[in-house]
Amino acid sequence: MAEANNIQLVERFPDAGDYCRLRSEAGMSPKTLQAARKGLPNTLYGVSLQVDGEVIGMGRIIGDGGCFYTVVDIAVAPAYQGRGLGKRIMTALDTWLRQNAEPSAYVTLVADGEARHLYAKYGFVETAPASVNMEYIVAPHAPE
Ligand SMILES: CC(C)(COP(=O)(O)OP(=O)(O)OC[C@H]1O[C@@H](n2cnc3c(N)ncnc32)[C@H](O)[C@@H]1OP(=O)(O)O)[C@@H](O)C(=O)NCCC(=O)NCCS
User: Fold this and answer.
1) Is residue 139 part of a domain?
2) Share of residues in the chain with pLDDT > 70 (%)
3) 20 contacts 31 by C-beta, under 8 angstroms
4) CATH number of the domain that 100 lies in?
5) Residue with CA closest to ligand 1 atom 34
6) Atom 16, ligand 1: which residue's CA is nearest?
7) pLDDT at position 1, please?
8) I need a surface site. Which of 18, 21, 45, 132 has the fewest CB within 10 A?
């Protein structure tokens, strides 16, 4: 297991292969390689955590660059969780937002389970019941 000081934060989002692998390792819903190849180049700002070149963490911001921003794909590989790395990722994204987003920008995310405690540290507040997240997957059972 790498020490925390051997874990490097790189201001670049993982490539599509590492992205799909890390989502799966972290227990997140799968994305096809094709979806990742289409979507990742539209990232406004993203970071990776690397150990000896291996990607073990990630997070990114998408949006219109003016009015609306969404924080997505926050993940740390299970073997490295609980050591402050989620905070390292969120600190980088929060710093970028505070430096680059307009004062009126609306920043949102969907917090899964206990991850809401992480986001609360960066000023995110729950919107329910006034507003609730609504969603659908385009074709959940389609072949990849
Ligand atoms: C969520 C995730 C990114 C957090 O990364 P991490 O490196 O484990 O988080 P950290 O060690 O930096 O902890 C950050 C804070 O989050 C909170 N937190 C994280 N997991 C928590 C849990 N299971 N229960 C309660 N609080 C939790 C704590 O408040 C913690 O701060 P503290 O140690 O100062 O109290 C990581 O657990 C993960 O990848 N999970 C699977 C994928 C996922 O659910 N991603 C989020 C999608 S919304």
Assistant:
1) no
2) 95
3) yes
4) 3.40.630.30
5) 84
6) 118
7) 65
8) 132
CA distances from 101 to 28, 56, 67, 119 (A): 28, 27, 8, 18
Which pLDDT belongs to residue 122?
Answer: 98
**Most informative mutation of 22, 81, 93 for ligand 1 (most atoms within 8 A of CB):** 81
Do 61 and 12 form a contact (C-beta atoms < 8 A)?
Answer: no
The residues lining ligand 1, judged by C-beta closer than 6 Å to any ligand atom, are 26-28, 74-76, 81-87, 111-112, 114-115, 117-118
**Residues of the chain falling short of pLDDT 50:** none
42 within a domain of the structure (yes/no): yes
Strand-pair category, 68-76 with 54-63 = antiparallel
Q: Measured from the CA of 90, which atom of ligand 1 is nearest?
A: 12
In a domain, 55, yes or no: yes
Quote the domain boundaries for residue 86. Answer: 4-120
Q: How far is the centre of ligand 1, averaged over its atoms, from the C-alpha of 106 (Å)?
A: 23
Beta strands in 19-53 (DSSP E): 45-51
Per-residue pLDDT at 4: 67
Give pLDDT tens digits for 124-134. Answer: 999 999 999 99
**Atom 3 (ligand 1) nearest CA:** 75
- Model pLDDT, residue 2: 65
